[in-house]
Amino acid sequence: MSGALAEARGASRRFGSFTAVRAVDLTVGKGEVVGLLGANGAGKTTLIRMLLGLLTPSDGAVRLLGAVPSRASRRRVGYVPQTLGLYAGLTVAENWRFSAGAFGDRGAPVPGGIAGWRNELAGRLPLGTQRQVAFALALSHRPDLLVLDEPTSGVGPLGRARLWDEIRRAAERGAGVLVTTHNMEEAEQCDRLVVMAAGAVMARGTVAQIIGGRTVARVRCPDWNRAFTILDASGVPVAVHGRDLRAAAPADEVSALLAREGIAAAVEVVPAGLEEAFVAMVAGPQGA
User: Fold this and answer.
1) What's the CATH class of domain 215-271?
2) At what angle do helices 251-260 and 224-233 cross, to 10 degrees?
3) Which of 77, 84, 130, 139 is most buried as measured by Cβ atoms within 10 A of its Cβ?
4) Residue ranges of the domains in the chain?
5) Mind listing the pLDDT tens digit for each residue in 125-179?
């Protein structure tokens, strides 16, 4: 295996007859933000747990910081699980002291970003605030690798922007970052994406590479509400963008469907967005 900070080669994980992760290849290098993009149940969390050594692959192999995952290699990782990993019955300051002590820095002061809650019980804080605290703890020892499982779930727009600023700063300092998300706006902030569905990798690359040459039909018409209803009832994937519709179907097919219902519409082919490309991949034969 290479010198990547985290790497999977043909990694699979089965639970009885159910295969949660199927022959996944993945690498995370220094200074890059790699996004695992997929819906709930795609296998993202299971893959992360294998990379961290919390689960053993059924097939294939994983490496963490160049070696088989171990307690020693995990000390160089900052990890925020979906469950956050905070001790609900301890205050923020007590959580901080415990985390700092575990990484050999017992005297580290509570950072300013979370000091305002230092005397609050972690379990009584709003979810968004808990995530900010968990993120600060994950960064406390300046890890070589940052692993974040849906880090901004439940966080408001301003808090989300701040967390992503921290993610980017960590990468600029040389840390590798692996982040799971199903939020397309967040996915677009990653350097590379690995798109997963049903435990398998559907696509990988930059946002532009993921989208590729995919297109959609943009529909403009006065009665866009009725047009949406017609296309949706016909089984055409369609979404509202402002007062335009974007349909994942050939433009001539969309025009014909609307014309049969007496709707005059301007229909043109435009490049797809990331979310539309994602939906097309997941809804295709491989993602079925």
Assistant:
1) alpha beta
2) 110
3) 77
4) 6-210, 215-271
5) 998 889 889 988 998 888 999 999 988 877 778 888 888 998 999 999 999 999 9
**Res 281 pLDDT > 90:** no
Residue the block writes with tokens 């097939």: 59
Q: Categorize the per-residue pLDDT at 99 as very low, low, confident or very high, splitting at 50, 70 and 90.
A: confident
Q: Compute φ and ψ for 18, nearest 5 degrees.
A: -95, 130
Full-model pTM: 0.84
Q: Which two tokens stand for residue 13?
A: 């994980």
Following DSSP, what letter does each residue of the chain receive, concatenated?
A: --S-SEEEEEEEEEETTEEEEEEEEEEE-TT-EEEEE--TTSSHHHHHHHHTTSS--SEEEEEETTBS--HHHHTTEEEE-TTTT--TTSBHHHHHHHHHHHTT-TTPPPPHHHHTTTTSBGGGS-HHHHHHHHHHHHHTT--SEEEEESTTTT--HHHHHHHHHHHHHHHHTT-EEEEEE--HHHHTTSSEEEEEETTEEEEEE-HHHHHTT-EEEEEE-TTHHHHHHHHHHTT--EEEETTEEEESS-HHHHHHHHHHTT---EEEEEE--HHHHHHHHHHSTTT-
Distance CA 53, CA 101 (A): 22
Q: Which residues contact 158 (CB under 8 A, 6 or more apart)?
A: none
The fold of 6-210 is Rossmann fold (3.40.50)
